[in-house]
Amino acid sequence: MIEIHMGSPITLQHPTSGSRIKVTTFEQALYLLERKWPNNDFNRANAVSVISSALDCIGSIIGARHAFITAARTAGYNDEQDLRILPPAAPAAFARSAD
């Protein structure tokens, strides 16, 4: 199975235990949302739907990342990077030069 990376990893701190979870792929995010999420609200359900659509190639990867971060915020997770919403980094071969 091919895993789809979500750009820069997101490190979440669990709201009650304080343990850290590093999420690097959308499959990991989906697993957390479906099986280990501390609450069951609209943002969680929306993130599951948006990530599933992105994995089926009918949704936006950036939208899926945004939905996951929104669900993490409403679930009480803290993040070292303050849950910044960043698009995946472009590979060096495609980066523009400042000519």
Please, could you describe this protein's structure?
By secondary structure, this protein is of the alpha+beta class. The chain has one domain (5-80). The chain is built from 3 helices and 3 strands; from the N terminus they run E-E-H-H-H-E. It has helices at 26-36, 42-55, 61-74; strands spanning 5-13, 20-25, 78-79. It has a 3-stranded antiparallel beta sheet with strand order 2-1-3. Strand 1 (5-13) and strand 2 (20-25) form a beta hairpin. Helix 1 runs antiparallel to helix 2. The longest helix is centred in the middle third of the chain and has 14 residues, at 42-55. The N and C termini lie far apart (40 Å). This is DUF982 domain-containing protein. It holds the Pfam family DUF982. InterPro entries: DUF982.
Helix and strand content put the structural class at alpha+beta
Order of helices and strands: EEHHHE
Q: If you average the pLDDT, what whole number results?
A: 81
Cross-sheet strand order for the largest sheet: 2-1-3
Helix tally equals: 3
**What is Rg?**
14 Å
Specify the overall morphology. globular
* Proportion of helical residues: 25-40%
Q: Can you summarize the main beta sheet?
A: 3 strands, antiparallel
Q: What is the number of independent domains?
A: 1
Poorly predicted runs of 5 or more residues: 85-99
Strand content: 15-25%
How far the N terminus sits from the C terminus, by CA atoms, comes to: 40 Å
- How many E-type strands? 3
Protein name: DUF982 domain-containing protein
Pfam family, one: DUF982
Organism: Ketogulonicigenium vulgare (strain WSH-001)
